[in-house]
Amino acid sequence: MRVSEVGRGIQVQTLVYRLLLAREGGYAAREVEVFGEGRLDRFDRPGEGKHPTCMHFDNVTVNDRFQLAHYGKPNNRMSTRVAGSTVKLSGYLVPITTDAKGEVRIEKTMRFQDDRYDVDVKLRFEGTGPIAYVGAWWDVNDKWTRAMRSGAGVFMPLRVGIGDSFGDNLCRAWRSMKAMADAAGVWMEFIGTKASILVALKSPSPGKMRAGGMKFWDGPDDAIEGEGVSHGCINLDVINCELARIKPLRLREFAFSYRVFLSGPTMLRE
User: Fold this and answer.
1) Which string of DSSP letters, residue by residue, matches 201-266?
2) For 133-160, how does the pLDDT look when each residue is reduced to its tens digit (9 = 90+)?
3) Which residues 6+ apart lie within 8 Å of 18 measured at CB?
4) Which residues are CB-neighbours of 105 under 8 A, at least 6 positions away?
5) Domain-wise residue ranges, the chain
6) Which residues have a Cβ under 8 Å from the Cβ of 217 and sit 6 or more positions away?
7) Buried b or exposed e, range 1-23, using 16+ CB within 10 angstroms
8) Angstrom distance (rounded) from CA 189 to CA 166
């Protein structure tokens, strides 16, 4: 394994995968590669269309007004420290709407292993008002994904070039963390032809996250509907008050952690 600073950010390379934590995107990942499958982030028209927020891997969103990485809005407020296979990031999310108020401070620690990595996230909300949404998410090219499955027992075949989970279907893909924990656990997986990517919650415990859940996006964010589909996206919604049907939360800070597997062939992992 090698974690090193390069011209565009920090590169992580193991025997199984390679990630570029891109400096301009607050060190959200680009150039996502699982060896044997190749690049998983070769999007057709990145940064175009109605939703240029997407096309990033391991991004963070708060209230749909702040993000770690966003096209057209470089995040130059992050500092980094690399110690062996650990990367520590600290700074601020960037506002992505004109009505964004306050600031969101983030501390993000990433610990890399050969076929996985673990992440701890700490957020502090400064003058933002109530918190309705906090999520981490992972985008890959629609041409790579063949199916999605989750700890709630959901299995969804995915068609290349077809939006299988957006709009009303996106809401139906949602499962609360309690429902997932009562089944096989809080996790969701992309399945490709030779590899898979699985995201699993580590903390807090699902029972303490009444507004939390997971959902899967597969739709036309950077293309006109009917002209093609760009990507699939696992959403770890640690707070989603709309879909949980509760009022926004008054919080000063929030912390969560998760594990990401990048490997193959696909299998249920401990």
Assistant:
1) EEES-GGG-TT-EEEEEEE-TTS-TTS---EEEEEEEEEEHHHHT-PPB--SEEEEEEEEEEESS-
2) 999 999 887 778 888 888 988 887 777 7
3) 11, 12, 31, 32, 33, 35
4) 90, 91, 92, 123, 124, 126
5) 2-263
6) 137, 165, 166, 170, 173, 231, 232, 233, 235
7) eebeeeeebbbbbbebbbbbbbb
8) 17
Looking at residue 268, the DSSP 8-state letter turns out to be -
Radius of gyration of the chain (CA): 17
Cα–Cα nearest to 120, from 77, 88, 73, 72: 88
pTM of the model: 0.90
- What secondary structure letter does DSSP report for 165? B
Residue 60 has pLDDT above 90, yes or no: yes
**Residue-level pLDDT at 44:** 55
- Spatial contact of 167 and 216, defined as CB atoms under 8 Å apart: no
Q: How many residues does the chain have?
A: 270
Give bridge partners of residue 166 from the DSSP assignment: none
17 strand-pairing partners: 34
The HSE-up count of residue 194 (CA atoms within 13 Å, CB side) is 10
CATH classification of 2-263 is 3.30.565.10, yes or no?
A: no
Helical H segments across the chain, by residue range:
168-173, 177-182, 241-244
Q: Which residue has the tokens 């963390």?
A: 177
Is the sign of the CA dihedral 200, 33, 138, 161 positive or negative? negative
Q: What residues have CB less than 8 Å from 85, skipping those under 6 apart?
A: 1, 3, 111, 112, 113
